[in-house]
Amino acid sequence: MALPGSPRLPRCCLDRGTCSATTTPEMEMLRRRVWQQQGVVSLHLEDITDPWLRQAIQNEAVRRWGPRQQEKNHGR
Q1: Helices marked H in 6-71
Q2: Rounded to an integer, what distance in angstroms lies between the CA atom of residue 74 and that of residue 76?
Q3: What is the spatial distance between Cα 8 and Cα 2, in angstroms, rounded to a whole number?
Q4: Could you give the CA distance from residue 36 to residue 4 in angstroms, rounded to a whole number?
Q5: Which residues contact 45 (CB under 8 A, 6 or more apart)?
Q6: How confident is the model over 15-43, as pLDDT tens digits?
Q7: Among 46, 50, 48, 45, which residue's Cα sits nearest to residue 62?
Q8: Are 63 and 72 a contacting pair, CB within 8 Å?
């Protein structure tokens, strides 16, 4: 706690209490900027309507980084 009239305490972007959630339009802007500036693609699997393409992208992600933690293995 700071005294009245003293400088504000430093804020950290890792402090979840002071940051608001990123909105969908903000995420789209971030994805666009990262693609244009760094050539990195960020896709949401549920947004890909072609089942073959969605599965191919998911397979490549699993090959590179392992399975998702929230993924259900359907008994396997």
Answers
A1: 24-38, 51-65
A2: 6
A3: 7
A4: 45
A5: 54, 57, 58
A6: 656 667 888 899 999 999 999 999 999 88
A7: 45
A8: no
